[in-house]
Amino acid sequence: MSARWPERPATPTARALSQTYKGVLKVSLLLVATYVVAQALSGFLPAAGYRDLLGLSNRTAVWIVAELHLMFAAFVLGVPIFALITEVVGVATKDRRYDDLAREFTKLLAMAYTLTAVLGCTLLVLFVVLYPKFTAYMHGLFKPTWALYLTLIFAEVIFAYLYWYTWDHLQGARKRWHIALGVMVNLWGTALLFIADAWVTFMMSPAGIDEAGNLTSLWAAVANLTWMPINIHRLLANVAFGGAIAAAYAAFRFLAARDDAERARFDWMGYVGSFIAIGAFIPLPFAGYWLGREIYQFSEQMGVSMMGGGFSWLWILQAMLIGSLFFAANVYLWLGMGRIPGAERYTKFQVPMMLILTLGFLVWATPRSIIATGSEMVAMGGSHHPFLGLFGVMAAKNTAVNVMILTTFFSFMLYRRGNRVAVVPWAAAGKAVQALAIAAAAVVVVGYGVYSYYVPSIVRIGYSVYQVTAVLAAMVVFVAIDIPLLKGAREIGPIAWGRIPARAQYALVFLAVTFTWLMGLMGYIRSGIRQHWHVYGRVADESANAYTMTHGDATLIVSGIVVAFFLLVAAVFFMAMREERKA
Amino acid sequence: MLARTFLKIFIFVLVVVGIYAYVGQLVPQFEEHPPKTRTITAETDRDELSDIGQELLRGKGGCLICHKDSETGNTRGPDLRQSAATAASRKPGLDAEAYLLESLREPGAFLVPGYPNMMPSALKPPANLTPAEIKAVVAYLQVLGGAESTAVVTVEDVEQSKRVAKGDHRGRTLMDQHGCTACHKVEDEGGEIAPDLTGAGARFEPDAILRKLNDPAAWTTPNFEEGLMPSFAEAPPGDLHEIVAYLSGLAGKSYNPTGAASPWSHEGVRLGLVIFIANGLMLVALAWARRRERREAAQ
Predict the structure, then answer these.
(1) How far lies A453's CA from each of A389, A448, A457, B177, in Å?
(2) Is B174 a member of any domain?
(3) How confident is the prediction for chain A on average, in pLDDT?
(4) Are residues A256 and B2, on separate chains, in Cβ contact within 8 Å?
């Protein structure tokens, strides 16, 4: 603790190590403080199964802190993934801009790590103080994983700090060592995520315990039915979320830029951030289907309660959010085409694509049952509208979202070839096969969508896999042809980075806000479908807050969390800019 | 410029979040409360039993997620208003009450034509109904269908329900599997050749019980024959920890079956060790770097 390190180390290695040690020391102190506070409060407060936090309900307090911690954790786990990818792209293409961009992304991490750790430690204290009995139960079950989790926190901190502080030193021939550090950061980060997911998913789909709740197999408790789907879902979501926040940072810097060079730099950063966000977002619904399927496998009742019970209305909100994301992503791309010479060739596709997106959005946002008066119900012939009710079921919604994904992918591909003209002799045939792949996927998606109406829900949810596979296959075929097709393509003109309307930057901010709100909402649904159970079907929540609140109240809390998150993110941005000015 | 841009973006964020929050207020608003717990005894009369059954069906049982018991509701499962009337003719040899009991305990035993095998047993999570509660639901279904309730809760149902609600500790099950209860009595069940273990957790610390299981010759309770008890040193350690946890639990002591006997298992010690190792490693690395730095400076 009393170690001395040189104030101005002469060698970059010593400097990087001393900065890293500062980080380790900071985390050590934070953990010791957390332990001491938690122990002191546990000893001081009278014994109880549940406690409130100074009048605020225990559930709301834990919810707010847990969600903020989760959002920052998603950011600090997502950013290193695409920073590493960008860095590798820079090495592969020998384009220095990618390395600078990866560095710019990573710069945002240092402060975000501190906030994540502080929120995580606060959450731990809240668990111990507000839910002492249940926390002790979970701690007893997962005891060995806690020690591993702690070890991984230090591994993550050490490698993340080294990754940042050795950036300038490990260039040129030493670059491979820097990339190796980046790989380690991501490995430890992913392992951390997987452990935390084991705790969360055990509460949803418990396994490895007997009727009385005693542990029979730790591995079975960890590798429960929803563990791997959540792992994959969160990994992808973290990348998408990190990309969206980084793009919002770029948008902010673009709008505050003083000259064209700065505008061009942050326009490009915003584009890459949004590209990563949308790229990771496109396969996200597929991971969601897998998770939904596993929930149904675990408990059909839980699945039905999630999709057809009280929580079904929140999926209408989700539809609105994802529909808005698709719109914003496409609008950003279309506005971006304005700075690409030659992209005007594809303007004709924008209106039909907008129509498809609008139709998809309308279908997706159509509720199954409508709150109606007695006379309205008589007029409709029941609680479901005879025609519109058909669009309220998952069969229609799965179809709509797959068509929207396909459309957005197509939009991306048009953007990509904006200023390029294929010159290979088989260009016409290649484009025809690409069009055929898209059309075939659309037929499969719509075909299965219609057929889904005639089969039970457990069979229907399986069809979503075929729809997803068709869309993915079309994407793979399209890209596999596109790469050789555009190799050596004639360039109409260079992209005029920085020459994009300000409203495109607001589209990026909109993407980030919507992603964040969506994350808050989905987190609530995932947790809420346990209803009055801490561990579904096994350990009941016996507190006064075990009820499921109204959707209005839940969305107000989610909104408050999102605003708080953006205020904290703004602090991270300002800190990053202050460091930049110092440098 | 920076502050102005931040303000503009922040207002934009507030507007977007505000719209989403507003839409959240437009969807139907309702709260769902956990089911109330009602006590069923052998004396509970038929009307009350049927009332309790209705509460269970609409609450704890979660039946209305798929079925309906009124004009509006879900149609994933059969309409419950018809179930009592058709129950007697569903399966040969089963009267209405027996059929309804079976359909709740083992829903897959007979499927109503046109409906898939998707219902979990009412005895299992998430419904977790006790045998007495299942009879209450049957009573309600009979009344709902216009018939007279025939379901009667017996003393045996009530006792069984208490056991189900409590849940058998895994350590208790393992004592049966390893033959402990052939000689020992625990919680009024088992043999009498060896001492009653119900109070063992109060008399001995967990590590002493564990030692006795591994080395039965360590000591023998006075007035009982020496050398009768076999060693369980070859039994899976996890099983022994579970048995110790169960016996200690009977005395109100908490014992973690994942190995509380080791001081390393204390969370404070674990945390301290991890911090010590991480800081130690960093200090060694830093010392190495500084040494190299000095060497380079000297050259």
Answers:
(1) 12, 9, 9, 50
(2) yes
(3) 89
(4) yes
Whether B221 shows a pLDDT value over 50: the answer reads: yes
Closest chain B residue to the Cα of A531, Cα to Cα: B34
If asked whether residues B210 and B102 sit together in one domain, one would say no
Closest CA of chain A from B256, distance in Å = 6
Of B165, B182, B208, the residue at which a domain comes to its end is B165
Pairwise CB contact (< 8 Å): B76 & A304: yes
For residues A468 and A289, is the Cβ–Cβ distance under 8 A?
Answer: yes
pLDDT tens digits along B31-84: 888 887 778 888 888 899 999 999 999 888 888 888 888 887 778 889 999 888
Percentage of chain B lying above the pLDDT 70 cut: 95
Mean pLDDT on A377-398: 76
Gyration radius from chain A CA atoms: 25
Structure tokens at A388: 């519109």
Regarding pTM above 0.90, the answer is no
User: Best mutation site among A67, A165, A311, A513 for testing chain B: the one with the most B CBs within 10 Å?
Assistant: A513
CATH number of the domain enclosing B203: 1.10.760.10
Residues B90 and B184 occupy one common structural domain: no
- Residue A534 CB contacts under 8 Å (≥ 6 apart), including other chains: A131, A134, A203, A540, A541
Instruction: Note whether B248 and B201 are within 8 A (CB).
Output: yes
Q: Is residue B1 part of a domain?
A: no
Cβ A144–B258 below 8 Å, yes or no? yes
Q: Which domain holds residue B178?
A: 170-250
Give me the pLDDT at residue A2, please: 39
Please give the ipTM for the structure prediction. 0.89
AA identity, residue A486: L
Res B256: pLDDT: 62
Residues in chain A with CB shorter than 8 Å from the CB of B12 are 506, 509-510
Overall number of domains in chain A: 1
Which range marks the domain in which residue A150 is found? 12-256+495-540+547-582
Whether residues B87 and B150 share a domain: the answer is yes
Q: Over 70: is that where the pLDDT of A1 sits?
A: no
CB-based contact B245 A214, cutoff 8 Å? yes
Cβ <8 Å between B168 and A210:
yes
Q: Are residues B98 and B120 in the same domain?
A: yes
pLDDT in tens, A37-77: 998 888 888 877 888 888 888 999 999 999 999 999 999 99
How distant, in Å, are the alpha carbons of A264, B46, B95 from that of B36?
63, 19, 31
In a domain, A308, yes or no: no
Q: Per-residue pLDDT tens for A512-538?
A: 999 999 999 999 999 999 988 999 988
Helices (H), A169-226: 175-204, 218-222
Q: Do B59 and B120 belong together in one domain?
A: yes
Residue B158 has pLDDT above 80, yes or no: yes
B61 and B127 both lie in a single domain: yes
User: CA of B174: which chain A residue's CA is closest?
Assistant: A216
B25 within some domain: no
Work out how many domains chain B is built from and give that number.
Answer: 2
The minimal CB distance from B20 to the residues A17, A151, A555 is found for: A555
Report yes or no on A475 lying in a domain. no
Q: How far is CA B21 from CA A310, A490, B25, in A?
A: 18, 49, 7
